[in-house]
Structure formats: structure tokens, C-alpha cells
Amino acid sequence: MEEVLVGIEAAVSEGFQRVKLNCVIRKHRNHDEVCDLVRFALDHGTDLSFIEEMPLGVVGDHERAEAYYASDQIRRDLSEQFDLIPTTERTGGPARYWRVAGCAQQIGFIAPHSHNFCGDCNRVRVTAEGRLLLCLGQGLSTDLRRSLRAKPGDDARVKRAIVRAMSIKPRGHDFALSEQSVLFRHMNATGG
């Protein structure tokens, strides 16, 4: 924990613009800390996004449905201590942003369960192994590493592979709280 705090302080003190913290909120684990997290973000000049837990990988310490904490509930919790103002700002990703009155930092909400965002999602991710993942909740991907290694320096070849992959990007993630995940890929192996 101390290393994380030192890293945040270092990023802020070095002048990185728009440092953003992500936090997965789970009922009976950390849902009672959302106001403290917003205060931390405001005190340190960082943005903060709250994320509903996504059913990726195998978890053994809890049932996802039992630990689910909706973004709407987080906003209700925050409204007890903060004046939240919705914004029209968009990053092209799934977050919907709010601001605390009088503050510049964004408070984002990523709600794959309670406010499915698939229709607006334009995000893809590249794994450390060079796979272009087309959706966090689906297994579809394409191997960019193969394109890169087949003809090094041929950017057009890689671009064609990406364009082809985007044509099969799924329309939705099919997340279900009550079902076991069929994707055994954890977020720490997914890429950003």
C-alpha cells in the first residue's frame, strides 16, 4: 500500500496531467470507503473512477452477485457528503463523469452491469503477448504480434489487421452477476 501512495505522490509532484485512480467497489468490502476515496482524490489533485466489478477470471473469496455494488448506489453515498454535478465530458471510454462542486477533478463511474455501455464503447486493449482484445467480456481477439513479426516495419499490415479486427468487435459483453465467468483472463494480464 505504501508503494502505491508513494507512486501517486511521485506522479502528481512530477506534473503528470490528469492522474486517474481506478477503484473497484464491492459491497461489504470497501463500499464504505467511497467518500474517503473521493476526499483522497480531491486532496491529491487526481481524478477517480469507480468501477463495478467485472466477471473476469476466477474468484474464490466471494460471490460476485453478493459483492455487487451499483454505481447509482455509490453516487447516492457520495451525495450525502458532496454536491455532485454531472458533466458532458467524454473520453471515448465507458466512464460517465461527474464533478464535485467547485473542484476540477473528474469522478467517473464505469457501470458494465447497471448501465451497460457497450453501444458506445470504442475501446480495445493490447495484451503483453500482443493480442488485440476486442471486448473485456468476450474472448474475441486478434494476434498483432504475428503481423508485426511477419514483416517488421510494415505498419500498413498491422493497420489492416486492426481494421479487420474492429469489423468483428462484439456489440456487447454479456456480463451476468449470477453466472460463473467463462473468461479466465484476469485484469492484470489484460493490458490497458
From TrEMBL:
Keywords for the protein's UniProt record, in alphabetical order: Lyase, Molybdenum cofactor biosynthesis
Gene3D superfamilies per UniProt: Aldolase class I
InterPro entries referenced in this protein's UniProt entry, alphabetically: Aldolase_TIM (IPR013785), MoaA_twitch (IPR010505), MoCo_biosynth_MoaA/MoaC (IPR050105), rSAM_sf (IPR058240)
Segments forming domain Molybdenum cofactor biosynthesis protein A-like twitch: 47-174
PANTHER family cross-referenced by the UniProt entry: MOLYBDENUM COFACTOR BIOSYNTHESIS PROTEIN 1, MOLYBDOPTERIN COFACTOR SYNTHESIS PROTEIN A
Protein name according to UniProt: Molybdenum cofactor biosynthesis protein A-like twitch domain-containing protein
Organism per entry: Thiohalocapsa halophila
